[in-house]
Protein 1
Amino acid sequence: MAVKIYIVYYARSSCIYRLAEKIRTGAESVEGVKATLWKVPDKQMIDWPKGSFKTEMDIDIPVIKPDELPKADGFIFGFPSRFGMMAPQFKAFLDATGCLWKTQELAGKPAGIFCSTHHQGCGQETSALSAITQLVHHGMLFVPIGYNFRPGMFEMKQVKGGTPYGAASYSFEEPTFLDYYSMYGHVEQLARQIKRGAESVPETLPNGVLHKLNAPPKSDVPIIEPDMLNGADGLIFGFPTRFGMMAAQFMDFLDKTGPLWLQQDLVGKPAGLFYSTGSQGGGQETTPLTAITMLAHHGMIYVPIGYTFGHCMFEMEEVKGGSPYGAGTYAGDGTRQVSEIELLQAFHQGNILATITKKLKDAA
């Protein structure tokens, strides 16, 4: 008997449908697998201009109902991003699976995720994360692609969608004190652009390990101590990613801020985040997202850049780091240099943080 894989998706443009078709082909390349496309009901929640996104490519794809899901042996769910999360139409479909949750009919079934976003840094990671919670509550097995799509996962010469969480595409159409840790120097370049005279976090890796990683010599930027943070009116923290989260060196520094937390010395101070990752989809969103927790525990005010960087936020002609969470860059294998547009975004972030810090201080 064939293994049944259901590819269930919601789409208002062709991006998700095209990915779904290619995923079906890939699934059926495995002997004994039968993959079927299903679309979720299009309960339109936004009055889009007539003819502006809707595709008729999938007009013959059947609409799925929740009670069809137990018939499958595995799933791959697809959806576009809305403000960094799955589209509400797909969320509504998953919310309707409560009866299946009650009977635990989906527990133990494997599932993957794919998505589309409008542009770079717009939610390819966080949208997938928002869907994983649904799988967990059903007791399903989340199957990421990780980094086994080699060498495609490390593509840096052209804009590419996709993350370790799953396949993805872009639907784009033409229309204070500064604390950071940096191994290869990419974060430091952003730091210097955000504010001259940055203060650095100490290195915790042994020199032998740094040599094997081809890390360049450290600059003469002074090392900051945790108790110095209280002297700032605002802060911007920067670090490279390690497996989608901040580097352990910076986490070690933050762990030493316990006395400041005990005295609530950082409460109310505005703070921003900037970062670097090794590849596209390698943590440009999850790295700052997971760092926000430490700001919240200190009672600090998180200051994102949002989409205030204007048209540059929608750059699709060249590879660009950064997201609404903060300025960012790609280190690649360590040889790639921070681009001009990434430096401009860093400057913009420094300006925003300084402006808001000044307003808060003047109003105090």
Protein 2
Amino acid sequence: DIQAFLKELTESVSNQKNITVHLNSRIHSVNGSIGNFLTEVKKNGHIEKISHGVTILSTGAEELLPNEYLYGKNKNVTTLLGFEESLAKGDKRLKEIEELVMIQCVGSRNPERPYCSRICCTGAIKCALKFRKINKKARVYILYRDMMTYGLNEMYYLRAREENIQFIRYKKESPPTVKEKGNGLEINVLDTLLGWQVTLNPDLLILSTALIPSKENEEISKLYKVPLTPEGFFLEAHMKLRPVDSPTDGIFICGLAHGPKDIDEVIIQAKAAAAKASSILTKKELFSEPLIVTVKDEFCDGCAYCIDVCPFSTLKLIEYQWKDTVKKTVEVNETLCKGCGSCQATCPKNGIIVKNFSLEHISAMIDAAIGA
């Protein structure tokens, strides 16, 4: 019972004295780095500053509300989440349905959203099985491109076949068409396995729509300097070696913020992110990367070219009094620097270098390689 689990978890978090929950709040600004973040949270016009050592991004995802298949225009067309809600509330009208049709991959696995939402197929079959328990006589059809009930979820697919739930496969090039006919609906689809054109007249049409990233992701990405995938989800540092780390140290990603996945994977990833965060918070000291940049103050004239190209916001321009003049130079935040060398490649004065990778070092390596 997911709702009971969520209720218990929410109460546990709310009653934990070491956890502060900020509801109806927005992140106003973010500064600092691993071990020393400072986040300003805005609520009811007031700003509260929070000092913290690590950050976990878990912004969730949203259900796509489609503009196809008469959604929003016909009361007999709803989304999978809407249908699931009706089942949970025990809507008595469901017992009167004679024909139910589900269409999969609505708004996903297309040029705009090339990814699979992963939970739709299993979710649709689970809802179909639950519907079958309250309505034994209704005809149930699931129109799909590929049935993605991976892992142990395949058992739900087998049960659905046993319960006489019909599966009709269609191709991307020839999706189902839906139109109003009288007071009902008419669906036409080419069954690619049989090669037949099938016409259905459902009392209720369910659309399994794509999971889309949270609208807040773009803003949070800019605040925390964490890149996004082309689809708008947060990008991990390495798919296999660092799946919950972001490219920015001290910031971790979990759940649907990272991409579509089912609840088991969400919980596993959340535990992994918490474990990684704890491994930092339990340390008294953190050691910076050995390959970081250093400023050669005698050559730096404060032109700030390096600041603009730094992908990690490591550098800032400062001024100080030197003899009888005010000198400009660049200051390095060593906890943020990754030693990528973008600043060194941009500097026209050789005023900033990656330690042990000066132009002289690199030239000597090239000469040695050519000489060999």
